[in-house]
Write a structure and sequence with these properties.
about 15% strand, Trna Endonuclease, Chain: A, domain 1, 5 strands, 2 domains, single chain, five-stranded mixed beta sheet
């Protein structure tokens, strides 16, 4: 984690918990070590001064009380249980805080969200360029409009946010570093995956050149994201089609080799509100 840190309160709780866990063991260890020196012969004991003899007697009595008394083990057991509970609570709360710390300078700070967000006008320009590039590669006569594209992304964002909103911070149309992203879903926990979504809307068929170009783009987005966030995201490509070209596109995608941390979802435009996101 690039920005590894945790709140001082949780650090303190974990530290107290560790002290509770170790304290009975340390006490026993210290007593045991100290009293090892008291295993002396009666002749050596008699040579000691009266004060030294009294100190040795006191220490021996304390040691015997410690190892024979059930109260010590009861107190030690409670101390260890309390310590474990404090450590578990501190780690749990730290874990939740850490999920926000790692990317707070990128996604979770409202001010920075606005700064890295793409304006509506920028989004329109970007979408228009995508449509033109797709037309050049695919040569389709049926061309998507900017409005259609943006409306589909908005609906998908709503669906993704509904799916991941409890565990992830979901944002749309952001620029991180040199790359722009349609939708990003950033985990609030250390142990959940991050997701980046690339959305395409196609009214005709697709070809290998178009697919390869798209993969190159997503690979660069992934590298850029990982470099800045120190996380490896799971990539999801969502291709939205019309009803009549769904089978053509879906059959073509089935021929594509599987890639690590990558999933392609093909869905009809009429069904995207209920698109399955079982990742």
């Amino acid at each position: 984690m690039k920005y590894l840190q945790f709140d001082s309160l949780y650090k303190f709780i974990i530290s107290v918990g560790i002290i509770f866990i170790l304290s009975p063991l340390v006490v026993f260890y210290l007593f045991f070590n100290k009293n090892m020196n008291l295993l002396i012969s009666k002749a050596e004991f008699n040579k000691l001064t009266q004060t030294s003899q009294e100190i040795i007697n006191i220490r021996q009595k304390l040691f015997l009380f410690l190892i024979n008394s059930p109260y010590y083990y009861i107190v030690a057991g409670f101390a260890i249980i309390i310590g474990l509970a404090l450590v578990a609570y501190g780690i749990y709360r730290w874990n939740k805080a850490q999920g926000q710390v790692d990317l707070k300078s990128i996604l979770e700070n409202e001010k920075l969200k606005k700064e890295i967000g793409i304006s509506t006008e920028e989004k329109k320009i970007k979408t228009k360029e995508e449509i033109i590039n797709d037309e050049k590669i695919l040569g389709n006569t049926k061309i998507s409009t900017v409005y259609e594209y943006m409306d589909i992304e908005k609906k998908l964002f709503t669906r993704i946010n509904k799916k991941f909103g409890d565990t992830h911070e979901v944002v749309q149309d952001v620029k991180i570093g040199d790359f722009e992203y349609d939708i990003i879903s950033t985990s609030k926990s250390l142990f959940e995956k991050d997701y980046i979504f690339e959305v395409k809307y196609i009214k005709g068929n697709i070809n290998d050149k178009w697919i390869n170009k798209l993969f190159e783009k997503i690979d660069m987005q992934t590298s850029g994201y990982s470099e800045i966030t120190n996380r490896i995201p799971y990539r999801i490509l969502i291709i939205v089609t019309e009803n009549e070209n769904y089978n053509l596109v879906n059959d073509k995608i089935k021929q594509v080799d599987k890639r690590n941390n990558f999933k392609i979802i093909v869905e009809q435009k009429s069904k995207i509100k209920n698109i399955k996101l079982d990742l």
